[in-house]
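Let us work through a complete example step by step.
Step 1: write down the sequence.
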Amino acid sequence: MLTEVRELDVEDRTLDGADSAATLAQSATHEPRTLRVASFFAGIGGFDLGFENAGMETVWQCEKKEFCLDILAKHWPDVPRAEDILEVEADDIPEADIWVGGFPCQDVSLARMGPRSGLRGKQSGLFYDFARLIEQRRPEIVVLENVAALLSSHDGRDFAVIVRTLADIGYGVAWRVLDSRHFGVPQSRSRVFIVGSLRGAAAAGSVLFEPECGDRDSEKSRSHGKKSVSPFAISVGNPEQGFVKQLAHCLYAESARHTGTDWSRNYVSYPEGRVRRLTPLEAERLQGFPDGWTMPVTEIANPDTLDSARYHACGNAVSVPVVQWLGERIVANFAATQRR
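Step 2: predict the structure and record it as tokens.
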């Protein structure tokens, strides 16, 4: 098609208007069109921001939590959104090349410290409602995200259900666990990303896996090398003014006053034993969001309630740099396909 466009004279085109001229110019210069994203379980827009940083456009969002809806409206005031996936019909969703969704992790997460309901649970089971919409509309690419514990939920059977469901709809599927610490943020946050592509498993795999290899050798693995020191044991700062760990443990969302494992592991220490929890600003930075991203438009008078809402939202989000990396690879793959 591109060859045909290059051979046509502009005056021979029957297209009318500015949009037609823009289409012709785009074809002539081989510029790929902007990919469109529909965002499910959008939270505070981690997927949306990361993919937009990679050059995509968010055209629709779905999110239920009131605080997160406030944040989405603040940053995407003109994007239509739904508030409950159970009430969404396939025709409600605008045309989009990519559907993304970090479906709820509560029923598969190890942070529950007890039996896991898995996909049978009320929250994580919303995957089936997402899959229903995917089957009806079949977008070109689907990207799912969840905690790495999804791989072991019900001895792996829940993960197998997800892969089989996408495969039965017609997607080639690939998955990979990515840790945020390798993408420029000082947080150890492992999440499994699942990519489904209508172009097959090889196309899905080309998004998640690089053909090149890096140097993964550590000092500990080399002969006669010194034993490596855990980054969690290394502190930065001045002991007389305050210091913090070089690498934060994973931010958990379930932490109203942060008395659980995240609060006990992530803290800033001061002289004479005084400690404090991380601030919402620090949590935003650990997830790769711009400063103040989670400050809502609607006023929350109680400062503790506001801080907890912001921290919870950050802990429940995806790391923006990880998503941007995925988005850049998706854009590159689409561009390569168009050149063929």
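Step 3: interpret the result. Residues 320-339 form the longest helix (20 residues).
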